[in-house]
Design brief:
mainly alpha, 4 helices, elongated
Length: about 100
């Protein structure tokens, strides 16, 4: 059990903590609760390579060659869904293999 001094010190230290201040710090801690990325707001997670995703997206755009804005949107959505499915399979495999 914590002593009165320990509780008091903890209370004082907790009052000092204001969380991240810089945009970089805020962006970093926004990912703290991310486990699988299926509900992530951004397509690329911090442990993934943005260049690899950009290349993946470009392949989809080149292969499907959308002719309108609507088709472009559909192709980009499809690329994100494929990325999510790939991420989910990788997570399943990793969990099953450990």
């Amino acid at each position: 059990m914590a002593t009165w001094n320990q509780k008091n010190a903890s209370k004082i230290n907790g009052a000092r903590s204001k969380g991240p201040v810089t945009p970089e710090g805020k962006a970093k801690v926004s990912q703290n609760g991310c486990k699988h990325g299926l509900y992530a707001k951004q397509s690329v997670l911090r442990n993934e390579d943005p260049a690899q995703y950009a290349e993946f997206r470009e392949v989809y755009l080149r292969d499907y060659a959308p002719a309108s804005e609507m088709e472009t949107d559909l192709v980009l959505n499809r690329s994100v869904l494929t990325l999510l499915r790939t991420r989910q399979h990788a997570r399943r495999y990793h969990v099953a293999s450990t």
